[in-house]
Specification:
Aminopeptidase, 7 helices, single chain, about 210 residues
Length: about 210
């Protein structure tokens, strides 16, 4: 399958045109309008060097909030009150921490300055949100993503202390359940999120969910 080259025009090809790895297009800009259009269609950005790449993999890795799994060890962490939980109190610090985090098997970060700025703008507009775990008044972990309709699109998480990001994620999902959110998009497989209840669904089914709940 061809990989489409985007210009400054605001458009995306049909997601069915993505290649086997889920890569759909490259180039274009990282504007607020393009990001909102991308997420509405189930597309997300990932950088390679200075070039934005746009993805829509099949199958898709997702979590139905009601299927969240909380381990006994995490239940103990929650019960002991080790961390404090907040949302949307330190969005810029959360995305910056995700950007700085050194990850095994990755050179550098896919969160560019341009992408960081765009998500901060999305936060100001009420689309992007953060969840924070605090330890003794210091930010210990967290995550951010985009909420549209009854869907939450998770982007990245970080942890400076054991269990901090997992705590922030589980507490956020509990909040999303209260808000009647139908699905959390986790994008691609990780064993960490699988242990919390995430699973694969077909892209066609994901598209149907987007159309119904966004």
């Amino acid at each position: 399958m061809p990989v489409y080259a985007l210009d400054q025009s605001l458009w995306f090809p049909p997601v069915e045109e993505a290649n086997e790895d889920g890569l759909l297009a490259m180039g274009g800009d990282i504007s607020v309008d393009r990001l909102l259009l991308a997420y509405k269609r189930g597309i997300f950005p990932w950088y390679e060097g200075d070039t934005p790449l746009w993805w829509c993999p099949d199958p898709r890795f997702v979590l139905y909030p009601g299927e969240l799994k909380i381990s006994k060890s995490m239940e103990a962490v929650i019960k002991k009150g080790i961390f404090d939980f907040t949302t949307d109190t330190s969005f810029a610090e959360v995305i910056r921490s995700c950007k700085k985090l050194q990850r095994k098997g990755q050179e550098g970060t896919w969160i560019t300055d341009e992408l960081e700025w765009a998500f901060i703008e999305l936060h100001k507009l009420g689309f992007a949100h953060s969840a924070e775990a605090w330890l003794d008044g210091e930010l210990a972990g967290g995550l951010y993503g985009i909420k549209m309709g009854k869907l939450f699109f998770g982007e990245s998480m970080f942890s400076l202390h054991n269990n901090a990001s997992k705590f922030a994620f589980t507490q956020l999902v509990k909040e999303l359940i209260k808000e009647d959110v139908f699905l959390v998009d986790c994008q691609v497989y990780t064993a960490h999120l699988e242990s919390l209840g995430a699973k694969m669904i077909q892209r066609n089914h994901f598209k149907e969910i987007l159309q119904k709940y966004i």
